[in-house]
Amino acid sequence: MPTSLSNRRRKQISSLTRRKGRNEHNQTLIESRRALASAIEAGAPMVELVVAEDARHDPEVQSLVDRAGVPVSVTDPETLQKITDVQSPQGVLGVVQRPLASPEGVREAVGKNGTVLLLDGVQDPGNVGTLVRTAAWFGVGGVIAGPGTAGLFHPKVMRAAAGGQWDVACARSPSLPDELDDLRRAGYALYGADLQGTRADAWVPRRPSALVLGSEAHGLGAAVLGRLDESVAIPGAATRRGTESLNVAVAAGILVYEWTG
Known about the structure:
By secondary structure, this protein is an alpha/beta fold. The protein has helices at residues 7-14, 19-25, 33-41, 59-68, 77-83, 103-110, 125-137, 155-161, 176-185, 222-225, 248-260, and strands spanning 3-4, 27-30, 46-52, 72-75, 92-97, 100-101, 115-120, 142-145, 169-172, 189-199, 209-214, 230-233.
Protein backbone atom coordinates (compact mmCIF):
# COMPACT_ATOMS: atom_id res chain seq x y z
CA MET A 1 0.00 0.00 0.00
CA PRO A 2 1.57 3.36 -1.03
CA THR A 3 2.34 5.84 1.73
CA SER A 4 2.93 9.58 1.64
CA LEU A 5 6.58 10.59 1.22
CA SER A 6 7.80 11.99 4.53
CA ASN A 7 9.90 15.14 4.70
CA ARG A 8 12.75 13.19 6.32
CA ARG A 9 12.79 10.58 3.57
CA ARG A 10 12.52 13.29 0.89
CA LYS A 11 15.72 14.88 2.22
CA GLN A 12 17.50 11.51 2.29
CA ILE A 13 16.53 10.71 -1.30
CA SER A 14 17.46 14.20 -2.49
CA SER A 15 20.92 13.75 -0.90
CA LEU A 16 21.59 10.86 -3.27
CA THR A 17 22.29 13.33 -6.07
CA ARG A 18 25.56 14.10 -4.19
CA ARG A 19 28.47 11.75 -3.53
CA LYS A 20 28.36 12.41 0.23
CA GLY A 21 24.74 11.28 0.38
CA ARG A 22 25.37 8.21 -1.77
CA ASN A 23 28.29 7.21 0.44
CA GLU A 24 26.30 7.77 3.63
CA HIS A 25 23.26 5.73 2.57
CA ASN A 26 24.97 3.41 0.05
CA GLN A 27 22.10 4.08 -2.35
CA THR A 28 21.59 5.89 -5.64
CA LEU A 29 18.76 7.01 -7.94
CA ILE A 30 17.23 5.60 -11.11
CA GLU A 31 15.49 8.40 -12.93
CA SER A 32 13.50 7.10 -15.91
CA ARG A 33 10.88 4.46 -16.60
CA ARG A 34 13.09 2.67 -19.10
CA ALA A 35 16.07 2.61 -16.72
CA LEU A 36 13.82 1.33 -13.93
CA ALA A 37 12.46 -1.44 -16.13
CA SER A 38 16.01 -2.49 -17.05
CA ALA A 39 17.12 -2.49 -13.40
CA ILE A 40 14.15 -4.57 -12.29
CA GLU A 41 14.72 -7.02 -15.15
CA ALA A 42 18.39 -7.35 -14.16
CA GLY A 43 17.53 -8.03 -10.53
CA ALA A 44 19.03 -4.80 -9.22
CA PRO A 45 18.72 -4.37 -5.43
CA MET A 46 15.73 -2.01 -5.44
CA VAL A 47 14.86 -0.23 -2.18
CA GLU A 48 11.88 2.02 -2.90
CA LEU A 49 9.86 3.71 -5.63
CA VAL A 50 8.63 7.30 -5.39
CA VAL A 51 5.60 8.00 -7.56
CA ALA A 52 3.98 11.32 -8.42
CA GLU A 53 0.30 11.56 -7.48
CA ASP A 54 -0.72 12.24 -11.09
CA ALA A 55 1.10 9.10 -12.31
CA ARG A 56 -0.23 6.61 -9.74
CA HIS A 57 -2.76 5.09 -12.12
CA ASP A 58 -0.60 5.19 -15.26
CA PRO A 59 -0.47 1.55 -16.51
CA GLU A 60 3.28 1.71 -17.19
CA VAL A 61 4.03 3.09 -13.73
CA GLN A 62 1.71 0.55 -12.11
CA SER A 63 3.54 -2.24 -13.95
CA LEU A 64 6.87 -0.99 -12.55
CA VAL A 65 5.38 -0.87 -9.05
CA ASP A 66 4.08 -4.42 -9.36
CA ARG A 67 7.33 -5.80 -10.77
CA ALA A 68 9.64 -4.00 -8.32
CA GLY A 69 7.91 -5.41 -5.25
CA VAL A 70 9.31 -2.71 -2.93
CA PRO A 71 7.69 0.00 -0.77
CA VAL A 72 6.12 2.87 -2.69
CA SER A 73 5.90 6.48 -1.54
CA VAL A 74 3.65 9.04 -3.18
CA THR A 75 4.32 12.76 -3.49
CA ASP A 76 3.23 15.70 -5.59
CA PRO A 77 4.87 16.21 -9.03
CA GLU A 78 6.66 19.38 -7.91
CA THR A 79 8.40 17.58 -5.04
CA LEU A 80 9.41 14.70 -7.29
CA GLN A 81 10.90 17.23 -9.72
CA LYS A 82 12.94 18.84 -6.92
CA ILE A 83 14.33 15.50 -5.71
CA THR A 84 15.97 14.67 -9.06
CA ASP A 85 18.31 16.60 -11.34
CA VAL A 86 16.47 15.70 -14.57
CA GLN A 87 14.03 17.92 -16.44
CA SER A 88 11.30 15.28 -16.48
CA PRO A 89 11.35 12.38 -14.00
CA GLN A 90 8.42 10.71 -15.88
CA GLY A 91 6.30 10.41 -12.76
CA VAL A 92 8.41 7.80 -11.01
CA LEU A 93 11.80 7.56 -9.33
CA GLY A 94 13.68 4.51 -8.08
CA VAL A 95 16.01 4.20 -5.10
CA VAL A 96 18.48 1.32 -5.35
CA GLN A 97 21.37 -0.04 -3.33
CA ARG A 98 24.80 0.65 -4.87
CA PRO A 99 26.41 -2.70 -5.71
CA LEU A 100 29.84 -1.14 -5.26
CA ALA A 101 32.53 -3.79 -4.85
CA SER A 102 36.09 -3.50 -3.56
CA PRO A 103 38.87 -3.73 -6.17
CA GLU A 104 39.63 -7.18 -4.74
CA GLY A 105 35.99 -8.09 -5.26
CA VAL A 106 36.22 -7.01 -8.88
CA ARG A 107 39.21 -9.29 -9.46
CA GLU A 108 37.35 -12.18 -7.86
CA ALA A 109 34.27 -11.51 -10.00
CA VAL A 110 36.32 -11.28 -13.19
CA GLY A 111 38.17 -14.54 -12.64
CA LYS A 112 41.37 -15.88 -14.14
CA ASN A 113 40.55 -15.17 -17.79
CA GLY A 114 38.87 -11.81 -17.53
CA THR A 115 39.20 -8.14 -18.30
CA VAL A 116 39.14 -5.05 -16.10
CA LEU A 117 38.73 -1.47 -17.33
CA LEU A 118 40.34 1.27 -15.18
CA LEU A 119 39.48 4.98 -15.45
CA ASP A 120 42.18 7.53 -14.68
CA GLY A 121 40.72 10.99 -14.02
CA VAL A 122 37.72 10.78 -16.38
CA GLN A 123 35.67 13.62 -14.90
CA ASP A 124 32.66 13.92 -17.18
CA PRO A 125 29.74 11.82 -15.85
CA GLY A 126 28.34 11.31 -19.35
CA ASN A 127 31.63 9.86 -20.55
CA VAL A 128 31.99 7.66 -17.47
CA GLY A 129 28.48 6.29 -17.94
CA THR A 130 29.14 5.58 -21.61
CA LEU A 131 32.37 3.79 -20.66
CA VAL A 132 30.48 1.57 -18.21
CA ARG A 133 27.87 0.89 -20.90
CA THR A 134 30.58 0.03 -23.44
CA ALA A 135 32.33 -2.27 -20.98
CA ALA A 136 29.07 -4.08 -20.26
CA TRP A 137 28.18 -4.44 -23.95
CA PHE A 138 31.50 -6.05 -24.84
CA GLY A 139 31.59 -8.33 -21.81
CA VAL A 140 34.31 -6.63 -19.76
CA GLY A 141 34.17 -8.11 -16.26
CA GLY A 142 34.81 -5.05 -14.12
CA VAL A 143 35.32 -1.28 -14.02
CA ILE A 144 37.53 0.42 -11.44
CA ALA A 145 37.43 4.22 -11.08
CA GLY A 146 40.51 6.01 -9.84
CA PRO A 147 40.84 9.44 -8.18
CA GLY A 148 39.36 12.30 -10.19
CA THR A 149 36.89 10.05 -11.99
CA ALA A 150 33.17 10.78 -11.67
CA GLY A 151 31.27 8.49 -9.32
CA LEU A 152 30.19 5.24 -10.98
CA PHE A 153 26.75 5.60 -9.37
CA HIS A 154 26.26 9.34 -9.91
CA PRO A 155 22.72 9.77 -11.31
CA LYS A 156 24.10 11.23 -14.57
CA VAL A 157 26.47 8.26 -14.87
CA MET A 158 23.53 5.94 -14.21
CA ARG A 159 21.57 7.53 -17.04
CA ALA A 160 24.44 7.33 -19.53
CA ALA A 161 25.33 3.77 -18.54
CA ALA A 162 21.86 2.55 -19.51
CA GLY A 163 21.91 -0.34 -17.06
CA GLY A 164 25.60 -1.20 -17.45
CA GLN A 165 26.16 -1.19 -13.68
CA TRP A 166 24.02 -4.33 -13.39
CA ASP A 167 26.27 -6.25 -15.82
CA VAL A 168 29.78 -5.36 -14.64
CA ALA A 169 31.44 -5.34 -11.22
CA CYS A 170 32.14 -1.72 -10.24
CA ALA A 171 34.68 -0.45 -7.71
CA ARG A 172 36.60 2.65 -6.70
CA SER A 173 40.32 2.73 -5.89
CA PRO A 174 42.21 5.49 -4.05
CA SER A 175 45.36 4.73 -6.09
CA LEU A 176 45.46 3.37 -9.65
CA PRO A 177 49.25 2.77 -9.53
CA ASP A 178 48.76 0.56 -6.46
CA GLU A 179 45.83 -1.11 -8.17
CA LEU A 180 47.95 -1.87 -11.24
CA ASP A 181 50.64 -3.36 -9.02
CA ASP A 182 48.02 -5.64 -7.45
CA LEU A 183 46.71 -6.64 -10.88
CA ARG A 184 50.22 -7.47 -12.07
CA ARG A 185 50.79 -9.66 -9.01
CA ALA A 186 47.52 -11.42 -9.86
CA GLY A 187 48.87 -12.22 -13.33
CA TYR A 188 47.20 -9.50 -15.40
CA ALA A 189 48.81 -7.91 -18.45
CA LEU A 190 48.55 -4.11 -18.20
CA TYR A 191 47.56 -1.94 -21.17
CA GLY A 192 46.68 1.73 -21.52
CA ALA A 193 45.52 4.20 -24.15
CA ASP A 194 48.27 6.60 -25.26
CA LEU A 195 48.97 8.44 -28.51
CA GLN A 196 52.51 7.02 -28.66
CA GLY A 197 51.41 3.39 -28.35
CA THR A 198 51.01 0.40 -30.63
CA ARG A 199 48.36 0.86 -33.33
CA ALA A 200 45.10 -0.65 -32.10
CA ASP A 201 44.79 -2.81 -35.23
CA ALA A 202 48.22 -4.34 -34.52
CA TRP A 203 47.60 -4.90 -30.82
CA VAL A 204 47.54 -8.52 -29.61
CA PRO A 205 46.20 -8.41 -26.03
CA ARG A 206 46.28 -11.42 -23.75
CA ARG A 207 44.16 -12.54 -20.82
CA PRO A 208 43.69 -11.79 -18.03
CA SER A 209 44.35 -8.13 -18.66
CA ALA A 210 43.53 -4.59 -17.63
CA LEU A 211 43.08 -1.55 -19.86
CA VAL A 212 43.45 2.00 -18.49
CA LEU A 213 41.78 5.01 -20.08
CA GLY A 214 42.55 8.61 -19.12
CA SER A 215 40.89 11.95 -19.68
CA GLU A 216 40.96 13.63 -23.07
CA ALA A 217 42.67 16.70 -21.61
CA HIS A 218 45.47 15.02 -19.65
CA GLY A 219 45.72 11.40 -20.77
CA LEU A 220 47.23 8.87 -18.41
CA GLY A 221 49.29 9.93 -15.40
CA ALA A 222 53.02 9.25 -15.43
CA ALA A 223 52.77 6.73 -12.58
CA VAL A 224 50.19 4.77 -14.57
CA LEU A 225 52.12 4.94 -17.85
CA GLY A 226 55.25 3.68 -16.14
CA ARG A 227 53.49 0.50 -15.03
CA LEU A 228 52.05 -0.57 -18.38
CA ASP A 229 53.25 -3.56 -20.37
CA GLU A 230 52.12 -1.83 -23.55
CA SER A 231 50.32 1.33 -24.57
CA VAL A 232 47.82 1.36 -27.43
CA ALA A 233 46.94 4.17 -29.85
CA ILE A 234 44.18 4.94 -32.34
CA PRO A 235 45.87 6.87 -35.18
CA GLY A 236 43.96 9.72 -36.78
CA ALA A 237 43.96 10.87 -40.39
CA ALA A 238 47.12 12.67 -41.54
CA THR A 239 44.95 15.50 -42.91
CA ARG A 240 43.42 16.54 -39.56
CA ARG A 241 44.26 20.06 -38.45
CA GLY A 242 41.95 21.29 -35.69
CA THR A 243 40.83 17.98 -34.16
CA GLU A 244 43.21 17.28 -31.30
CA SER A 245 41.81 14.02 -29.94
CA LEU A 246 38.99 11.48 -29.93
CA ASN A 247 36.33 11.66 -27.28
CA VAL A 248 37.32 9.16 -24.59
CA ALA A 249 34.05 7.25 -24.91
CA VAL A 250 34.48 6.90 -28.68
CA ALA A 251 38.09 5.77 -28.23
CA ALA A 252 36.94 3.27 -25.63
CA GLY A 253 34.48 1.71 -28.05
CA ILE A 254 37.27 1.06 -30.56
CA LEU A 255 39.83 -0.18 -28.04
CA VAL A 256 37.44 -2.35 -26.04
CA TYR A 257 36.24 -4.00 -29.26
CA GLU A 258 39.84 -4.83 -30.20
CA TRP A 259 40.64 -5.88 -26.62
CA THR A 260 37.75 -8.28 -26.15
CA GLY A 261 37.97 -9.76 -29.64
